[in-house]
Amino acid sequence: MTGRIRNRQFASKIVSAEEAAEMIEPGENVGMSGFTGAGYPKEVPGALAKRVARSHEQGRPMKVGLWTGASTAPELDGALAEVEGIDLRLPYQSDPVSRAKINSGRLDYTDIHLSHVAQRVWQGIYGELDVAVVEVSGITADGRLIPSSSVGNNKTWLEQADRVILEVNSWQSEHLDGMHDIYYGTALPPHRKPIPITHPADRIGVPHLECPADKVIAVVETESPDRNAAFTPPDRTSEQIAEHVLDFLELEVRSGRLPRELLPLQSGVGNVANAVLAGLETGPFDGLTAYTEVIQDGMLQLIESGKLLMASATAFSLSPTAVDRFNRDTAAYRDKIVLRPQEISNHPEVVRRLGCLAMNGIVEADIYGNINSTHLMGSRIQNGIGGSGDFARNAYVSIFVTPSQAKNGDVSAIVPMVSHVDHTEHDVDVVVTEQGLADLRGLSPKKRAERIIDRCAHPDFRPLLHDYFQRAQHSSFGLHTPHLLDESLSWHHRYVQHGSMRP
After folding, report:
1. Which of 15, 120, 206, 461 is least surrounded, with the fewest CB atoms within 10 Å of its CB?
2. What is the pTM for the complete model shown?
3. Which residues are known catalytic residues?
């Protein structure tokens, strides 16, 4: 037995990453841990990629289905995509190599609401799960698995896989033990019961993952850090967006629609989200909570300042500086952070019950409030929908944020019609750019269009949008949601043809 593997039966299965990779057969579906660069296996994917490359060199094509919690890291997603080792990828990715392969038609990818993955795997929608490769931070003496810096779909992988490979990563803080809440009460219809969470701090499960020792075929020891990229510091644009959001929240409190401590926060990852969280630190709100997917730098800072009482999520997504701080003081965070399986962290039932305030970034919005979160010019996938849909449709207030233009002003984030729809106008309450904030609640489509154009569009594109909207009101087939069908996607066509949406 070793320091992190305190069970003799598991310790007897320690092998090298290369030996473990040989236990994965061509054509198998492999569920790997990992969520936003946290808690993914560090060694077996690389060894598997080398095996795939050797097989291809010998004229024996080899691919596997790759299922994860969300995005992972270059040494997993990128390594396997580079050697053409992935058949079907799900449910979310953000790797540039994978993205290029997907958009060139060489890698199949299905983009899924993150709360739906476990249910679909239990249903058998994607076929059998042959192997699970899951990182843990330790194994207890009685054979329970201590999760690492993400939970994601690990519970489902361990339950559904025929065979399990564990990576035990001693880089992960030993004080993570006790931070997780693994709920084993989910079921398929008609056997479902209510999920008993009424506050983000509620713990309804157990602190460890369960897996029969006889299902484990290999244990690999590692000591490697998560992928923790530094965030781009908030620029003036993201700070302006944050200011609009914070002003809106203050107005909601004054109007009596929100309590002074707000409601549980959900925030996407990125510099705009961190700018909002930074604003909350100096703002008038105290006693905050979060029920979200990912804990990032801004939330860690809010916990440290005392503004955020506790945060529930499924993973961390921290910069290197924040990771060092967290690993140094993990024990101090243990009662203020709870990590859950993503089928619970993103569960629509819980999001609706708690009344989360959802804030997510987008690619573009159209004048009626439809949102494209995933595709460039309608056909090139960027990352995926992730959990934004889980929260947007069920949030108490659904807020979408974006700079008003991109590509040095050649692309408008506010367009006549989105080129791909991820969130319909029915799931969108508020749209925010650095130009302003459009509260769309209670408005008809034409009133929404006026407000989005006037408050969110960049001044360079605003006259063009007004012109389109005015002409659509005279020439549209119907006048409830006026559109010029031969023009509605012309901005995107112009960009594809000429590199700019400008006439």
Report:
1. 206
2. 0.95
3. 293
